Amino acid sequence: MTGMHDIKIDNSLKLARVEKSLTQSGLAELAGVTRQTIGLIEAGKYNPTLKLCLILGLILDKSLEELFRIKEDE
Amino acid sequence: MTGMHDIKIDNSLKLARVEKSLTQSGLAELAGVTRQTIGLIEAGKYNPTLKLCLILGLILDKSLEELFRIKEDE
DNA sequence: GCATAATGTCAAATATATATTCCATTGACA
DNA sequence: TGTCAATGGAATATATATTTGACATTATGC
Which of A31, B23, B33, B57 is the most exposed place for a label (fewest CB within 10 A)? Predict the structure, then answer.
């Protein structure tokens, strides 16, 4: 992941999750991942897989665009 | 990646790439990854990272929704 | 106050995305 | 025909996403 395109990602996972009254553990269980994975993604501490993002969007009823965007600073 | 949400992903990366008259190598170089990575993603043989998907969308001028979708069969 | 749920975090292990290198195939084109 | 660019594919190595398990902290309800 070198090159001129070094990008930071912003997400509204936490917001979408609490809107659905889901806990990190609850969402994790629905998505088939661990609580830690959800927590770290929410915290922006890692870079999830496309498949997982699509699953989360499915569960939270949001598009990828709504959940994840390129962070607009530098 | 267990659980009830087992999803297959469809992509139009190849189409978007040739529309831009880019070769796999050219796109790879722009994205800062290897040609093989692009080839394997186009072939649906692996599950890219969100960050890489966003970079590819940036380069190819497409949204994530346009590039990647859940495959509608089973 | 105490219990318990929800979250943060850390270390070690595992799975898998990505890199690297190499060889084979195909198609364009001189 | 022969060369070369573009792609497909495989094997091994590395980076990192994800798991597992454990402990600490911060709510929140009783």
Answer: B23
Gap between the Cα atoms of B1 and A44, Å rounded: 20
* Domain range for B16: 9-60
Residues of A in contact with B3 (CB under 8 A): 29-32
Residues of A in CB contact (< 8 Å) with B are: 1-5, 7, 9, 29-33, 47-55, 58-59, 63-65, 68, 70
A40 vs A44: CA distance, rounded Å: 6
Instruction: Select from A1, A50, A70 the Cβ nearest to the Cβ of B47.
Output: A50
The pLDDT profile of chain A, 74 residues, written as one tens digit per residue, is 445 678 999 999 999 999 999 999 999 999 999 999 999 999 999 899 999 999 999 999 999 999 999 987 64
**Domain annotation covers residue B17:** yes
CATH label of the domain that carries residue B32: 1.10.260.40
Is B34 domain-assigned? yes
CB pair distance less than 8 Å for A54 and B9: yes
Decide if A36 is inside a domain: yes
Q: Name the pTM for this structure.
A: 0.92
- Say if B23 falls within a structural domain: yes
List phi, psi (to 5°) of B30: -60, -40
